[in-house]
Amino acid sequence: MRILVRVLKLLVFIMLINHLIACSWYAVGINDLEREDTWVKANDLKGKGTVYAYTTALHWSITQFTPASMEVVPMNELERSFTIVVIVSAMVIFSSFISTITNAMTQLRNLNSERNAELVKLRCFFSDHKVSASLVARISSCIHQSNKLTGSRVHSEGVSILELLPVSLKCDLAEEVFAPTLCAHPFILTWSEYYSRESKRLFLAARSSSLGAKHELFNTGQVAESMYFLSSGAMVYVRGDTRPARVSPGQWLAEPAFWIKWKHVGHASSTGKNCELVSLHCETAIRILSQDASTISGARRYAKTFAAYFDKQFDQLSDVWADVEVLQAMVSEAFIKHEKELLRHSVASRVVKDTKMPGLLRRMTSRFSGVSMASRLSSEEGMSQDEQINLILHERVRKYGVDGQKRREILGTRSMGSDSSDEVLAPVVSPVFRNPERRQSIGRGRFARNGLNVVPGIASAFRIMTR
């Protein structure tokens, strides 16, 4: 289809050039009304109307590009000179046009021959193995839909020349392309604000893909390896006998795969239109998130909160779970210590930009540069930047304290921000597999590891956040 569109564009371009030449040719013919030796008067175009005059000029223009002839010929030296210029220009333009058309048709012929050869092999396979007609129809329909994807959005993986870019440019490009989609998740949005450099690596690890109409993304029982974000189109998620859930752009699927080993508990497929997806491979993303191995690591704390919540609310966990209120509470619980640590250091040093301040905290101060509260405080007379940041931090920590009870009610757990024993997180063991079929053990606060043993305690639900 793209080849045919390119050929059509070339034809339109040639006709546009011929239109301009035809208008110029007619202007040359009526340039001097007192002369009798012009092609306009020689063909008596004045009495035949404007349309006939234009089509005659256009006909003459086209004949200069092709080996054709007509009754209109130059009658004076100006018209003869104009004709020579047009013919020389036409030799260059038309030869390039012909070569482009030839290459395009050759590509189309090769493409069709390869596809036809594959289809012949497929038909022979069906015939040799006596595949049922109903299954043949389903496979043929799927292949037909896949062929339509050749005209879908171009993905970065398909542009090999991008591999020549340095890593810094690749990261900047990935941030602009994938950040709007990935930051729809509250955790990724907040984490990227704290770790701007690491977040670019996370965006670089993202992959985009197209899913044909009524194509399957994953099925029940498959081991989940990636988290998916829908950027366009629509999908349907079905779990058992429950009502199908519709997934719209800005939503995500398979978040549990980020924090625990997870098997899909439902079936996800696209609707009647093609979908565009952005995926994050879990193992790759976890390696990036685990760069901060400190006790205030937002990723580690979010993983702990996630596992603790669903240890008690296991019936709610699915591939499309996205309770915004609970998510916001989890994010607040995960990053409260970042705010407290920054406030503690800011009050102690009174100079947030102190060169002795830990690198993490220096990066965190940039998070407040775009806060609306900072813009309001900047208007206060006599208030330094350090004082502004201190006031912002105090306000945010105060808000965390006010909302603490609400977070505890939503999450049903003790706030980790007030847990003094949380200064050192529990040792993280090997990743575990949560077996959706063994609900009786999950309900007792246990997780199944590889479907064999049971390991008590929430810590066994974590992925390895450090290497």
TrEMBL record:
GO terms for biological process: regulation of membrane potential. It comes from the Eukaryota. The keyword Endoplasmic reticulum does not apply. The chain crosses the membrane at residues 7-28, 82-105. InterPro entries: cNMP-bd_dom_sf (IPR018490), KCNH_animal-type (IPR050818), RmlC-like_jellyroll (IPR014710). The keyword Flavoprotein does not apply. Keywords: Membrane, Transmembrane, Transmembrane helix. GO terms for cellular component: plasma membrane. Signal peptide: none annotated. One of its GO terms (molecular function) is voltage-gated potassium channel activity. This is Cyclic nucleotide-binding domain-containing protein. It comes from Polarella glacialis (Dinoflagellate). The lineage of its organism: Eukaryota, Sar, Alveolata, Dinophyceae, Suessiales.
